[in-house]
Amino acid sequence: ASPGDGVFDAYGLSIFRPHCTYYYRLSEGILMWLRSGFIPEVDLMNDIRKAHCKVVILSQAVRRLPPNLLQFVRSHYVSAGSQTGDEVLVAGQVLRRAHLEGNRATVSLIASAEYAVRPVGGTPRISIDGQLYQGPLVLQQGNHQIVVEGDFQEIGIFYSRVLASTVQLLNRPAAAPPRRTSPEQESHDM
Asked: Coil, strand or helix: which one is 75?
């Protein structure tokens, strides 16, 4: 990550990068308050969005977040491998054939950043927001329309400062699927 890129970890140990949330240390008390609702989960989700958080260190403490918050993290980040038992996640999503309606899907990205696309199990033609993908491109935080033509097993869309070879796409826990988009919805959303 670049020096200005926010990181979310359990203990604020990423001292050379800004922490993404006010709750920089996930102590037992903070985890208990999150589980009880005293600290609304949406506060951390909004902090992560506002910071355009590009990296999450998925330690044991982060794995103990309430299920909805952990699902939020899993649905907006992909694995870039693990170090010393902690998994490093980077902003992005994984598309599987089942996520597409026809050949389209809407992908929600958590951070404005440069993204790379890596297909597995084929060489499909991929367009993002009407632009043919030919190499890393800057995408803003929010929803993006993906059109895929051709065979594939999975397509990873991830923060491009990570080497494509480190991103683990196949055999990872399934994240929440991106929203399906029908042509009628797409024209309605415009």
From this structure: helix
Q: Strand runs (DSSP E) across the chain, as ranges? A: 7-8, 55-58, 77-83, 86-96, 104-109, 113-120, 125-128, 131-132, 137-139, 142-149, 154-159
Instruction: Report d(CA 110, CA 94) in Å as an integer.
Output: 13
Who's near 121: CB < 8 A, 6+ residues apart? 151, 152, 153, 154
DSSP 8-class letter at 178: P
> What are the Cα distances from residue 107, in Å, to 40, 45, 63, 79?
25, 17, 24, 17
Which helix (H) or strand (E) segment holds residue 134: the answer is none
**0.85 cut: is pTM over it?**
no
What single-letter amino acid sits at 20? C
The span from the CA of 64 to the CA of 31, in Å, is: 8
Give the whole-angstrom CA distance, residue 29 versus residue 26.
8
Residue 61 exposure: Cα atoms within 13 Å on the Cβ side: 19
Residue with the bigger pLDDT between 44 and 129: it is: 129
- Strand 142-149, strand 104-109: pairing: antiparallel
Mean local confidence (pLDDT), 37-65? 88
Task: Check pLDDT > 90 for residue 128.
Answer: yes
Residue 30, sorted as left (phi over 0), alpha (psi -120 to 50) or beta, turns out to be alpha
